[in-house]
Amino acid sequence: MKSITIKGSERENVGKKATKAVRDAGMVPCVIYGGNQPVHFVADERAFKDLVYTPNAHTVVVELNGTSYNVIMQDIQFHPVSDKILHIDFFQLSDDKEIIMEVPVKITGTSPGVLLGGVLRLNQRRLKVKALPKNLPDFVEASISELQMGNKLYVTKLETNNFKLMHPDNTVVCQVRISRAAMKAAQEAAKAEKGGKKKK
């Protein structure tokens, strides 16, 4: 999985007054869990744009005063009105411990059902995977090459290399639905066929 680097500085004071001052200065208060003890730090709000405002999934290297932490974003809070980032929780990764993370679904191939006028509906844009940090995928590939009109693609049909999907077997990733136009054409064809048989 691709990684991005965020540079910040550790926080000594984590009280409400100090946190407000941090936000007023255009910085985001953050905390890293998963290690021996939580690590509180701040970083410029602009440093998070490639992590937060993207459909892609990333691991993160947080650099604080010469110390690096390999982490993933676990939780994020936004201001209800301004949408500014208020706080971010990170979780520290261990090379030998599996982690659960959401990654995007990437559709590949061409569906015969879509070529016949069906509409592809993506039910799951992201899927939860479990893997060692080194095996976390950038995305889960979903091939629609065999989907006919009305077919569904279940998670059990997806390839999983060195990672597990954390979803029930009956989870639908995407499906090809019959469009109104295709349905109307089928009804008209059926009527025409019926009319033809009557004339005979």
UniProtKB/TrEMBL annotation:
GO cellular component annotations of the record: ribosome
CDD domains: Ribosomal_L25_TL5_CTC
Keywords assigned by UniProt, alphabetized: Ribonucleoprotein, Ribosomal protein, RNA-binding, rRNA-binding
Domain Large ribosomal subunit protein bL25 L25: 6-90
Residue stretches making up the Large ribosomal subunit protein bL25 beta domain: 99-178
Entry similarity comment: Belongs to the bacterial ribosomal protein bL25 family. CTC subfamily.
NCBIfam families tied to this protein: bL25_bact_ctc, PRK05618.2-2
Assembly, per entry: Part of the 50S ribosomal subunit; part of the 5S rRNA/L5/L18/L25 subcomplex. Contacts the 5S rRNA. Binds to the 5S rRNA independently of L5 and L18.
Function: This is one of the proteins that binds to the 5S RNA in the ribosome where it forms part of the central protuberance.
Protein name: Large ribosomal subunit protein bL25
Organism: Flavobacterium celericrescens
